[in-house]
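Researcher: Hi, I'm a grad student and pretty new to this. My advisor asked me to get structures for two proteins we've been looking at. I'm not sure of the right format, so I'll just paste the first sequence and hope you can take it from there.
Model: That works fine. Here's the first sequence with its C-alpha cells right after it:
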Amino acid sequence: MNKIDRYVQAGTRHNTRLGYQSALRHYEIEWGGFLPATADNIARYLADHAETLAINTLRQRLAAIAQWHIDQGFPDPTKAPLVRKVMRGIQAEHPAQEKRAKPFQLDQLGQVDTWLDGAIAAAQATKNRPAELRHTRDRALLLLGFWRGFRGDELARLQAEYVQVVPGEGMTCFLPRTKGDRQGHGATFKAPALSRFCPLTAYAAWVSLARLESGPVFRSIDRWGHIADEGLKPASLVPLLRTIFINAGVADPELYSAHSLRRGFASWATSNGWDIKTLMEYVGWKSVQSALRYVEGADPFARHRIEAMLPAPEGPTSAAVLKNNDGGARE
C-alpha cells in the first residue's frame, strides 16, 4: 500500500469501510450484480431484497455502491429517479419500527457495580489473576461507558495515551475521530470523579493492574490472564455486557446493548434536571433530534403529569377506582 492509499484509507472510519466492503460483496458476489451499475440494476437489486432486508440496511447498501462509483469516477446510479422511487415504495410497503436498546438505569448500574466489587475481592482472595483482570476491566468499561455516554465503538477505540487523570477531580479522554466529525479534528470528553460508582477510580485500577501506558484501553483477556495487544472489537461489547449483566442478576439482559449505557445516562440526566443543551454538549450530540432519540423520561407515558391535572374524584366509587388502578385493594 502506497502513502496515498494509506491516507485515503485512514480518512474513512474503520467500521464504515468494513460495512461498505460487505455491502459490495453482497451486491456483486451473492446477488450477481455488475459494477459499474445502472439504475435498472440497482432497482432490481432493491426489489429482490425488499422483503428480507431492513430499510436501513438497504440504505447502507446504496451508500456503499454510490461511494464505489464516486471513487472510480463513474456517475452515481443510486441518485436516479427510478432508484429513489423504488426506495420510497419499499418504505411504504414494508414499514418498520426502529428498534432501540433498553436504557440501563442507575439502580442497575449499582447492582452490577456491587457484584463486580465482590467478584474482584473474591478473585484477589484466591489469587485468581485472570478473573481479577476481567472483572476490573469490566468495571472500568461499565462505569466509564455510562457516565461518559460513550458509544460502543468509542469505548473500543479509546487509547490509554489519550486519557489524562486528575486524581480527585476527573479524567479527560481524547478521541482522534468521532461520529459526525467530518473535519477530523477529534473530540475531548471529560468524566468526573464521583463518591460512588466512580469511573475515574475504576479506570485507574484497571490500567494499573494491566500495566497499560499506551494502546487500546479495553482489550480481551484469555483464560491464563494474557492481555491482547489489540482492543476489543465493537461487536464483542454486546455479548460481553450481557454476560456481565447475567452474572450480576440483571433481569432480561438480552434487551440491552452497548447503546444501553448511552441511553441510560441520557435518561438519568434529563430526569435529574439537565436541559437538552447541556446534555448535548456533554455527550457530543450535534442536533436536538439525535439527543431526543436517546432520552427516556422518568414519566414516559406522561401518566403522572396527566393524573396531576385531572379533577379531584367525586365520591367513594371514583376514589376506589383510582386506588385500584394504582395497585391498591378493590373496594
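Researcher: Oh nice, that was easy. Here's the second one.
Model: And its structure:
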Amino acid sequence: MNTEQPLTADTFLAGLWRENPVFVTVLGMCPTLAVSNSVLNALAMGLATTFVLIGSGALVSLLRNVIPRAVRIACYIAIIATFVTVVDYLIQAISLRLYQALGAFIQLIVVNCIILGRAEAYASRHPPLASMINAAGNGLGFTLALLCLGTVRELLGSGSLLGIPLLGPQFAPWVIMLLPPGGFFVLGGWLLLFNWRQRKQGVKIPVAEVHRHGA
C-alpha cells in the first residue's frame, strides 16, 4: 500500500522530540539502559543505530515494490543485519576498546524494534529521500536520549564527562549510577521530566499515530 505524504520539516523533527523513540514511544530499552553508563558509549551506540536506520530505511524504500509482502519482515531483518555487520566492523576498526565496551549490543541492533518499526511503518510506504530523513530524525532522537542518560550517569557515577574530571577530588562517585539500577533511576527521571514538559506544552500523541509511525 502506498501512503506517500509531502516531505515536511516534521518528517525529520518528529523523531527528535514529539515521537522520540525512547522518551515517547519507549522503544530500544535494552541498549538504552545497557550502554548509557558513559557519554562516549552512548554517542557511539546512538550514531551506530542512526547509520543502520538510514541505510536500511533507504534500501527498504528502494525495494518496497519488489519485496513480497509475505516475507517482508524476514527481508527487512536481512537488510538491517547487513548494515549492522558493516557498522560492527567499522567500530572494531576505529576502536577495539570501544567495541569491547559496547559488547553484544552492537550485534543486537539487528533486533532493535526502533529500526524494524521504521522499516515496516515508514520506509516500506515512502520514497527513499523521505525514508532517510525520517530515519535520521529518529536516529538522532535516539542518540539524544542516550546522551541525556549517559551524561547524568557518567557525571554522577565517576564525576567526569568523556573521561575529563569535573567535580573535583572531594566528590564521592555514586557507583550505582554506573550499574543497571542506576540506568533505571535516570531513565525514570528523564521520562518524568519529558512527560511533564509535553503536558505543559499541551502536546498529545494519539495512540493510532504512534502505532502508524513505528510503535
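Researcher: Is there anything I should tell my advisor about the second?
Model: You could mention this: The chain has nine helices and two strands.
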